[in-house]
Design brief:
By secondary structure, the protein is of the alpha+beta class. The protein is built from 8 helices and 11 strands. A 5-stranded mixed β-sheet has the order 6-8-9-11-10. Helix 7 packs antiparallel against helix 8.
Length: 402
Amino acid sequence: MQNIYDIRRYGTMAFFVIAVGLVLLFLYVSERIVNDVAMQERQRMEIWADATKAIINMGNADDDAPPAADIDFLLRIIEGNRTIPVLLTDDQGMIIMHRNFNLPEPVDSLNPLYISEANEAFLKEKLSSLRGTSNVIHIILSPGNSQHLYYEDSRLLKMLNYYPYVQLLVMLIFVGVVYFAVTSTKKAEQNKVWVGLSKETAHQLGTPISSLMAWLELLESMGVDKEMVGEMDKDVKRLSTIASRFGKIGSKPQMELTDVNRVVVDASEYMATRISRRIKLSVQVCPEAMDVNLSDSLFQWVMENLIKNAVDAMDAEGAITVVTKKERGNAVIEVSDTGKGLPRKRFKTVFNPGYTTKKRGWGLGLALAKRIIEQYHNGSIYVLSSEVGVGTTFRIELPLVN
């Protein structure tokens, strides 16, 4: 099952790389389009400047008036610009002409050459900003006499500049919504599977447990050694407790105010008699009571899973230390071992259903522990620290009840 999460991780990385590549390609193509449009607009402005220069030179010529057709053609070129805002100035910076700007005040139709104070201030501000750009064409009318054509990007070009980023933002939002929907659906399906599997397991265990209880009564009445019957009775009650735990999955368990120190000690003492004698299990509890709302049986299940996980991480020899303490309004339980340890990239993966490093194992213990702590106890469980070849520490945090 471990390979499934490796494949998923590598697949996610590959998907991310491909997505970034596509975004960069998209931005590159958009940049090329923007540059092409900007070049075309500059060419239009150069033609507009040439037409302006030609009309001025015609007016200054001493020979006969030029053909009307030529003048009309040049005027059509100038009048044809209805999208690109332009400012024409002389060498002293005086504004001679302006077109296609959204002025703060409307132009007087009876006196179009008049510029109000508000419009003049607006145009001067535009001229100041345009002087710092490359959007300028110098029109040399004669030696020592020139005009300067400043122009802004058209509305279309401005939209093209922002469009790739707007589209990218929309795509990210869409992907995020889809990812959230798929993840929520997947979690809901997983919860149904967990609940169904747990309740079916509890149901299947119920019948043989009831039968074993009846057999124990029969054996006791037949005079079988009481010590033997007592040990068998402990195992049957243990099976009954396990079935009860599975039956509580999916339904809200009864939470009671409990000193978590007692539950930790009970679970540790139970596990101490069922692990190798070469593994030393020690418990260091907080000297003060740590009252939390918890389900006794479910929390003991969590502790047993953590201790079993620690045992499995060692080659039948080592030490397990369980520590409880108060920290920032939380009851903290830490389970440390001297086992194989984990690389940092596995800190979250170990809680995935099916993840296991054992040849024989379902990889459900830590996944169940995480669900019990987070969904039923409003706490958190995570790998606090780990070093390969040294050991691992798991931490549980539960909110204290004042």
